[in-house]
Amino acid sequence: MIDDIVKFISGYIPLSPHEIEFIDQQNLIVRSKKNTVLLAEGLQAKECFFVLKGCVRSYHIVDGVERTTAFFTEDQPITPVSYVTGQPSGYFLACVEDAVIALGSHERNRKLIEKIPALASMIMQMNSELLVQQQESFDAYRNLSPEARYLQLMDERPDLLSRVPQYHLASYLGITPESLSRIRRRLMTGTRDPR
Cα–Cα 20 to 30 A to 59, which of 22, 36, 95, 126? Predict the structure, then answer.
């Protein structure tokens, strides 16, 4: 799995054999089973994550109901707000599938950047890209109908449709599982929501 990290980083910056060896020595990788909670609401995040394999879901609980806010899959970083602010987390992070994850921490990241200074610019670029993605996702959620959000999901993240349980997808889209089933039926029969 270290090859996956190296391949990803190499897409941003070149790495020397010495730098690859240093990354390998950091013991960054953990395997987490499906339903493992990586971060619980109310706890401070001590680590950031990078998904090498699997799917991780972000959610919070409102009136006893889980509300999914994001899915993270292969080659996606997860930087919890709590990790940056040092405040308790306002949401959970949990594995939807068995996952292989690279861990980061302030100390580990500092050591990596000391040995590989170009990582600092890579991290800044990734954070900028992530911010844009999050803003686009928020705008789509706010401005599109549930059916349009589903169509966008089909277009941009079709893998989620087969990897994530329908009730999590429905929660992410802001609708009930029954409403999602109706949308799917309408799309299969070629009829559209008149709204």
Answer: 126
